[in-house]
Each structure stands twice: as C-alpha cells, then as structure tokens.
Inverse folding.
C-alpha cells in the first residue's frame, strides 16, 4: 500500500502551480466529503460500497488552453511545463492523471489546432506517470466535431476500471450545441447496466452536467437526461472543468465538483454582466488558480478534499 503520509503540507503547497484537483479514491469509496458539498460523504450510506483493493489517488487537471496568449495570463506559455515538472517531483506519483478538457486554446485554423495538440502531447509526454487520460473541451472539439481531437487522443467517450471504481468519460462538447446526444446516453445506460449495483461510479466530463449558469454556456443541453441515468446508481461523483473555478453542487444523489483552470480564472456565475477572464494580478501571480489538497484522515470518513487558494500558498 502506498504511504500517503509522504505528502506533508510543504509538498502539497508545492502543487500551487498545478491547478485542478488531487483526488484520493479511498474518499470516493468510503465517504469523504469535500467543502461546499453536503455533510454526507460521496456515498449515500445506504449500502456498503465496493472498496478499492488498495488506496490510490489520481490528479485532475483542467483547462490548460495550450496556445493561449493574452493579458489574462502572461505566463501561459510556461504554466503547463512547470506543472509537469512539479508533478514529476512528487515523492509519490499518482496512479493516473486526467485532463478534463480544453487541452488547447481554440483556433479556426485546423493546421494550427493540430499543431497545438501535438505540442500539448509532447509536453505531457514528459510526465513520469504514463497512465494519462484525456477528454475534450469545446476549444478542442466543437469546431470540427472532434475530428482533430480523435486523431490525436482517441475516443471522446469511454469507460475504464481502476481498483474497484468504475470511471466513465463523457463527451458533452463535440456537439457544437453542447449536448451528450441520444447515442451516447444509450451507451452510458448499457455500460452502467453491466455493473454491480454498489460499485462506486466516477464520471469525468468537461461541461457541468447540470444547469449551473446556462447564460454563460455553463450547462449541458441534455444534462438532465444524463443525471437521470446516473441517479440510478448508489454512489456517483462527477468531476468536470469548463468554468475555471472551484464549485460544488448536488443534483439528487449525484455530487458535482469542478476544477480550477491552469491558465486563468473566470468570475463566479452571474457575478458580472459579461463573462471574461479575471484580470491578471502582477502582485499575486496565479491568483484564482489553485489545487485540491487532500488531508489524510484516520476516521471513518476517509480522506477529505480541501481546496487551497494559490495566492495563500
């Protein structure tokens, strides 16, 4: 079993430049509750979940927007490379890493889009952890319905198992309207139908599956249909990106957690008249970016998720 005590406070603070999240799977299987969610855990407590064979953790990184250049982050050309170096320096490597969309910044030029994807792949190819999962964001896939993305990264939706947990990757961006689509929902129903009733489920997506703020495109057109399917399960946690900030919500029994961006933060939903990147603060570089620090616990609640602001790190 991996010794997670090796992650002391100093080492977690070194994750400040990463953004995104650090997720201990033992929390997903045993009921750890992150801040901003209800007091209950990831499970509903009605039936014992299938525990992983071994504790493990994975990293969620999101919205790297490789190729972005602008005032919202004058260091955008080095953030991803620094992130890779920081992860590689961790005393314990994650079992896997997932990038939850907007790997690259949008462009109408198809050749440039592929060039950015190739550059992104080369950079993350330096990660010590070779088990890396990807899913598209609208910046990667909406202009060509995922053509360039699939050429570089493979399928836009799929499922996999890891140490007692079932993971489902959904594509809610290749459709320019921001829908999952009936065909993929049918695939999801079929996939979940093969599982034991108590297997914990982790869903990875780019957009929120609920109507967080549709006025800013922070929703999935048919997300309610997807959530209806997910609510047939006992334990479901959804991790997504797109909104460039931490957010926690619950729809019925399904818990939703967004990750911060690696390039720039966005304002809280509806807090300003028009959605735009939060201005770069030269006095506090990286303000609004952050990461999830996991505090190992010995109580029945398992590991807990704690969000740490980069500026305070």
């Amino acid at each position: 079993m991996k010794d997670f005590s090796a992650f002391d406070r100093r080492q977690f603070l070194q994750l400040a430049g990463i953004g995104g999240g650090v997720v201990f799977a033992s929390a997903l299987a045993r009921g750890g509750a992150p801040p901003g969610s209800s007091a209950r855990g990831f499970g509903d407590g009605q039936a014992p979940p299938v525990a992983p064979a071994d504790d493990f953790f994975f990293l969620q990184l999101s919205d790297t927007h490789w190729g972005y250049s602008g005032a919202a982050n004058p260091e955008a050309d080095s953030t991803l490379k620094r992130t890779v170096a920081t992860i590689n320096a961790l005393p314990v490597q994650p079992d896997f890493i997932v990038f939850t969309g907007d790997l690259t910044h949008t462009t109408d030029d198809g050749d440039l889009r592929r060039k950015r994807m190739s550059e992104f792949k080369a950079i993350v190819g330096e990660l010590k952890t070779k088990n890396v999962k990807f899913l598209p964001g609208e910046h990667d896939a909406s202009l060509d319905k995922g053509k360039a993305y699939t050429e570089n990264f493979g399928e836009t939706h799929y499922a996999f198992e890891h140490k007692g947990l079932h993971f489902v990757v959904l594509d809610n961006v290749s459709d320019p309207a921001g829908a999952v689509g009936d065909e993929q929902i049918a695939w999801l129903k079929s996939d979940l139908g093969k599982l034991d009733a108590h297997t914990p489920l982790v869903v990875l997506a780019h957009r929120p599956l609920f109507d967080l703020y549709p006025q800013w495109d922070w929703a999935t057109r048919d997300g309610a249909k997807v959530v209806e399917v997910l609510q047939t399960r006992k334990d479901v946690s959804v991790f997504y990106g797109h909104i460039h900030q931490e957010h926690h919500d619950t729809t019925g029994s399904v818990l939703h957690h967004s990750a911060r961006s690696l390039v720039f933060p966005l304002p809280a939903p509806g807090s300003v008249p028009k959605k735009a990147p939060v201005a770069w603060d030269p006095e506090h570089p990286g303000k609004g970016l952050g990461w999830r620090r996991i505090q190992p616990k010995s109580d029945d609640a398992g590991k807990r998720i704690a969000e740490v602001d980069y500026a305070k790190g």
